[in-house]
Amino acid sequence: MFSVRGRGVARAAATILVSGLVAAGAIATAGPALADDGGAGTGGVTAKLGRVTEGDSVEIVENAGTPQEKKWPVGGGLFTMQVDGGGTLQTYCIDLRTGAKRDYTYKEVGWSESSLHNNDNAGKILWILENAYPKFSAEALGKKLDVDLSKNEAAAGTQAAIWTFSDNVKATPKSADAAKLTEYLLKEAVKLEEPKASLALSPATVAGKAGDKLGPITVTTNADKAKVTVASGAPAGVKVVDKDGKAVTDAKNGDEVYFDVPAGTADGTAELTAEATTKVSLGRAFVSIDGPSQTLILAGSSDSTVTAKASASWAKKGAVPAVTVAKDCAKGGLEVIASNAGDEDWTFDLKGTSYTIPAGGTKTITVPVAEDEAYKFTITGPNGFEETFEGVLDCKTATPGPKPSETPSTTPSATPSTPSTTGGTTGDTTGGTTGTTGTTTTGGGDLAETGSSNATPMIAGIAAALVVVGGGAVFFLRKKKAAGQ
Hints:
By secondary structure, the protein is mostly beta strands.
């Protein structure tokens, strides 16, 4: 963890990983370019992880045919998630060696903000989601393959195919019929383009002077349109407009909107809210915002309510700052995009280094962050400007561990199990459960921990450490001014 005010220290996990984090990063003058679907924290669905409702046992083989070959069984299946504001989601795991924590809250993100950012097979995973269960019923898939597939088998067969591409392992369902589904999906898969965000605004903050249009802010959505309003508490006369100054109440994908602040308005701030009801696109990634938990990918969605927010600040004279932080997994860190729409220089401190943004200027500060490292920093400016960003960088799937026989006696506080072979409801993370034969289920847990067990190689050494220090947490970016995003 780091703080531009010097009020934080690195998490214990970072003591091992932080050696590469020795500089604040290169600075380059640039325009406010962000990820295609907006900077993290500017929108997207949030949902709470439930249990795996359908699934079965899958055998994992790592480094097949080599002296380093390892085998272990895990439970593979389909998660359910409850969307904040209404709606349900269904997801699969794309981070095999990290356990999933039931009741953790997850946030929708683009591939660039997840372990898929450098995965050449991400588009094939999307094809699987578009052509397997639950997009198509178990019955329909069974007829296609001339087998008798149950829902549990269809879910396990789909998950096994996804793990092959997400974690670079050989994954084979226990059921022969499910294994035929996996084989078919792997053989036929082709690359598809990344899906659009459900709803996002980019950039998250803009600045300027009263009498001007402040923006533009680009709307990205897969909905037909999003309702756009000025949040309550804004000064009188502030409204949302298009580039021609016409009032805007609805916006489509790709539209640009602006804050219209009347001339003479006292120095201040305002916020706009965009809202839509839509189905989240298959293939969108979901990362935990509550702590260590595996990354998921969307396999199905009901109509869900989604919101996004952006803010503006203005002043008559002096510096008028704006800051947006975007996660950049390709660069292994964060991009802090700081701009100054005022008529005086703005100087702020970031990670012990002072930066000056000239009047009318914009700079992009690249901040390296080690994988699984927690960070927190606050950037301050004139007129009470203060933005706090915090989270944990999680851009990679968990790395392989030693063979199961090398597993130490210490195991994580919550371990996964596999679904019942009868398809019944599994237990929760507080009580022991009995899973499918061949999979260890000690320590309590249910299929909401799919992809990790106390027989899984990741547990040796690193798992015990993860329990203590909370390493392996997923990235989340949250701004004080946009509480609840």
